């Protein structure tokens, strides 16, 4: 059981570079679907963050914001940050968060092959021309040298815009199979030029982003979210993830959040005891248009043949601990963390400096305060993962295992 002393350790203020966190629990980047059709943040998004801040979350990392139009997500109403017109609209968020003493980090991303040209209106791009079987529509165009340069410029410019908008830092999305993760993984990066092959070559695009971003934005904190492992043959391994973490520290990274998985892995990143077949057939573009009789058969057969990925709790903690042994910058861990006792153990045993959570904050935006007060010891999330699938068509909400 967690004691008052344990809770004090979790909830004492801390500082990482110029960012002061009110406690060690972070709201991990979560796609909210609360932008407008052009990617501008809405009043509903501001309200979502305000509720988190008033309930004493230590720090908020926003849902991912696209740095280029061809990198927009397949998910509903993704945030964007691809031109200067977004700066003032984001400033409304940062000013309110700072008024509530809560730091806020803008996650910036390019989806690479994990999107559809039907969504972006542009050709899908990737390090290599390898089809993503979770989409199974476009064979992506292999990026040219010029296009890679434009992408690194896009991330650097987005970093500067985030600084101008008042964010406390940015987080580069290097995880979950998006474009930068595609470069880092030998499964998706089959290149034989300076952008592929060795770990150093695969990391080159990240190093260029750091170099350009620092040239534009100075000593503005840049965090990353990275995979430490996935389920792909030839994909990310802990050994290579440790080497990448060292390179990130050398490049000037301010903090590393450790995650796992890619879309083709299924529910590897957000794990649960049951396969959310109902949600997939209602919201996923690949399945929703299939005949009703197929739906009925699938509900019976898919769970029998789908692999459940275990463990369900704390599944990145040991990987984060290994990375933390090899770097001096703060390490954050996400993935199945749902209880005060887990958080206490992770921090006390030095496995990570901070924990971040996604799904627990969807069902209970006030869970950080509940943990602090000792009124609740574990998240009420049942890990149905309908929230993750429903986000393809809807704004973020908790379904609690029921379609409405």
Protein described:
By secondary structure, the chain is an alpha/beta fold. It has 2 domains: 4-266 and 311-390, Alpha-Beta Barrel (TIM Barrel), CATH 3.20.20; 274-307, no CATH class. The chain contains 15 helices and 14 strands. Strands 3-4-7-10-11-12-13-14 form an 8-stranded parallel β-barrel, surrounded by 6 helices. Strands 1-2 form a two-stranded antiparallel sheet. Helix 2 (43-54) packs parallel to helix 3 (87-99), helix 7 (199-217) runs parallel beside helix 8 (238-251) and helix 8 (238-251) packs across helix 11. The radius of gyration is 20 Å and the shape is globular. 51% of the residues are buried. The mean pLDDT is 94.
Strand and helix layout:
Blueprint lengths: L3 H8 L2 E3 L2 E3 L3 E3 L15 H12 L4 E3 L3 E2 L12 E2 L6 H13 L4 E6 L7 H4 L4 E2 L14 E2 L2 H21 L3 E6 L4 H6 L14 H19 L4 E6 L10 H14 L3 E5 L17 H7 L8 H14 L11 H10 L4 E4 L5 H9 L5 E4 L1 H5 L3 H7 L12 H5 L14
Parallel strand pairs: 3-4, 3-14, 4-7, 5-6, 5-7, 7-10, 8-9, 10-11, 11-12, 12-13, 13-14
Antiparallel strand pairs: 1-2
Keywords:
single chain, 404 residues, alpha/beta, TIM Barrel, 8-stranded parallel β-barrel
In total, the number of strands is 14
What oligomeric state best describes the polypeptide chains here?
A: single chain
Percent of residues in helices comes to 25-40%
CATH superfamily of the largest domain: Aldolase class I
Biggest pleated sheet: 8 strands, parallel, barrel
Total helical elements: 15
């Amino acid at each position: 059981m967690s004691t008052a002393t344990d809770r004090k350790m979790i909830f004492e203020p801390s500082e990482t570079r110029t960012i002061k966190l009110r406690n060690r629990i972070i709201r991990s980047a979560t796609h909210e679907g609360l932008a407008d059709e052009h990617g501008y943040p809405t009043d509903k998004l501001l309200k979502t963050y305000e509720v988190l801040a008033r309930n004493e979350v230590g720090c908020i990392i926003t849902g991912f914001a696209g740095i280029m139009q061809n990198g927009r997500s397949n998910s509903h109403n993704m945030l964007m940050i691809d031109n200067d017109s977004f700066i003032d609209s984001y400033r409304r968020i940062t000013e309110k968060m700072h008024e509530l003493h809560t730091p806020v980090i803008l996650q910036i991303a390019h989806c690479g092959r994990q999107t559809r040209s039907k969504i972006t209106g542009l050709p899908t791009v990737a390090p290599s021309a390898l089809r993503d079987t979770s989409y199974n529509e476009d064979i992506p165009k292999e990026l040219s040298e010029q296009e890679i340069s434009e992408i690194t410029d896009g991330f650097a410019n987005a970093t500067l815009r985030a600084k101008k908008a008042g964010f406390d830092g940015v987080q580069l999305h290097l995880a979950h199979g998006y474009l930068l993760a595609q470069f880092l993984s030998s499964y998706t990066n089959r290149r034989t030029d300076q952008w592929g092959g060795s770990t150093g070559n695969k990391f080159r695009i990240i190093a260029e982003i750091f170099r350009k971003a620092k040239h534009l934005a100075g000593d503005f904190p840049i965090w990353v979210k990275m995979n430490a492992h996935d389920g792909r043959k030839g994909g990310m391994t802990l050994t290579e993830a440790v080497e990448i973490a060292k390179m990130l520290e050398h490049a000037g990274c301010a903090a590393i959040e450790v995650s796992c998985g890619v879309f083709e892995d299924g529910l590897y990143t957000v794990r649960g005891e049951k396969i959310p077949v109902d949600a997939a057939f209602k919201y996923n573009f690949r399945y929703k248009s299939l005949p009703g009789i197929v739906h009925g058969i699938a509900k019976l057969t898919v769970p029998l043949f789908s692999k459940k990925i275990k463990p369900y709790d704390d599944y990145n903690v040991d990987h984060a601990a290994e990375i933390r042994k090899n770097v001096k910058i703060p390490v954050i861990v996400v993935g199945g963390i749902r209880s005060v006792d887990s958080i206490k153990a992770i921090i006390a045993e030095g496995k990570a400096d901070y924990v971040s959570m996604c799904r627990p904050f969807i069902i209970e935006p006030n869970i950080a305060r509940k943990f602090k007060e000792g009124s609740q010891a574990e998240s009420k999330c049942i890990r149905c993962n309908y929230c993750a699938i429903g986000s393809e068509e809807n704004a973020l909400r908790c379904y609690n295992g029921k379609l409405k």
